[in-house]
Write a structure and sequence with these properties.
The protein has helices spanning 11-17, 24-32, 60-70; strands spanning 9-10, 45-46. By secondary structure, it is mainly alpha-helical.
Length: 75
């Protein structure tokens, strides 16, 4: 919820932010189980290599890319 529109953070950055730097995979899994997407904006969390990663909401990665583009983030 703290990542502003048009901005992204990596799973690793979120893990570091919660003081669990080795938990990037757990962060990704938690995002994948988010039942409130896109209201709780897990689509703003991406992989460290700059790719979007997965998205469990209807439409999958295509929807994640669309949400990010609509917020002004260019892929």
């Amino acid at each position: 919820m703290k990542i502003p529109k048009g901005k992204v953070k990596t799973y690793k950055e979120v893990a570091i932010g919660i003081k669990m730097p080795k938990s990037a995979r757990a962060v990704a899994n938690a995002c994948g189980k988010n039942p409130y997407s896109p209201k709780v904006p897990c689509h703003r969390v991406i992989r460290s290599d700059g790719t979007v990663g997965g998205f469990s909401a209807p439409g999958g990665i295509k929807t994640k890319k669309k949400l990010l583009k609509n917020e002004g983030f260019s892929l």
